Amino acid sequence: MNVTVDQDICIGCGACQDICPAVFYVDEVIGKSQVIDEDACEYANCCEAAEENCPVKAITVIGST
Ligand code: SF4
């Protein structure tokens, strides 16, 4: 599974980190979400939920388990 966060679009709201902390981490210094472990999507099963709940649609998830 491939997961990306568009750094130009992300507003650092933290929703993805709340939904899927194994995969996303919001860096408070730069105010953007980072993908810390995209392989965690395979077992955490929350990447699609994060994608759907991102208010600015900055998350792209490609592939499936
Ligand atoms: S939910 Fe979207 S806008 Fe909010 S921190 Fe995550 S990637 Fe950024």
For the structure shown, list the relevant keywords.
65 residues; alpha+beta; Alpha-Beta Plaits; two-stranded antiparallel ribbon; two-stranded antiparallel sheet; 3 helices; 4 strands; 25% helix; binds iron/sulfur cluster
**Helix-strand string:** EHEEHHE
Structural class: alpha+beta
Q: What do the pLDDT scores average to?
A: 94
Tell me the helix content.
10-25%
CATH architecture identity:
2-Layer Sandwich
**Which descriptor suits the 3D outline?**
globular
Which band does the percent of strand residues land in?
15-25%
Radius of gyration: 10 Å
Distance between the termini: 7 Å
Number of helices: 3
How many beta-strand runs?
A: 4
Largest sheet: 2 strands, antiparallel
Task: List unreliable stretches of 5+ residues.
Answer: none
The CATH class designation is Alpha Beta
**Tally of individual domains:** 1
Bound ions, cofactors and other small molecules, one mention each: iron/sulfur cluster
CATH topology grouping: Alpha-Beta Plaits
Strand order of the largest sheet: 1-4
Can you tell me about this structure?
The chain is of the alpha+beta class. It has a single domain, classed as Alpha-Beta Plaits, CATH 3.30.70. The protein contains 3 helices and 4 strands, in the order βαββααβ. The strands form 2 sheets. A two-stranded antiparallel ribbon has the order 1-4. The protein starts with a strand and ends with a strand. The relative contact order is 0.34. Bound molecules: iron/sulfur cluster (SF4). Iron/sulfur cluster binds next to helix 1 and strand 2.
